[in-house]
Amino acid sequence: MRKFPYACMFAAFVVMLSAALTSSRAYADFTPKTVSKLVAHVDDRNPIFVGRIPLILIHGIHGTASDWFGSINGNTDDEKEYFLNFMDYFYSSTLKDKYQLYRFHYLSDELPVKDIGQGLQEWLDDFIQKGMLNDVPLVIVAHSMGGLVARSYMQEHKHDVGSYSDEFGGERVLKLLTKGLSH
After folding, report:
1. pTM over 0.90, yes/no
2. In 10 A of CB 114, how many CB atoms?
């Protein structure tokens, strides 16, 4: 007689687990490109200069406040806030003459780091194919979890277009600068 209540509890647990897994947004609705977005940094201090080296900024965990990427276009203060200090320094220095800023945003909690790294590779391929990013080596500046995303892109994902087609992302990266959390 005692086995019946446990069997019912186990069956209820299996039903709840099944419902949770099948309704999970992470694997049901999202792909590497839908949980991430690469944007060309838009700023009135950003000079138009052909030939600058792409510099990709990648935020740490929960660095994007928005849950919906339809609003990420590079123009809002909320999108720039995470990197505000870096961008102020960047535009007050000669770095702006050598590098062209891009920002990579992603939803931290929806897919594994490997998939977010794939999203970066896919966005870079799209930008290169559409002429929105030069097909040249690039520099990545990443914070915390962004360093893991960069590492995944560099070691686990091959480009599909351009002069680095069929090569891992790391072949394209001139420099990777990472910064962990400090208290």
Report:
1. no
2. 17
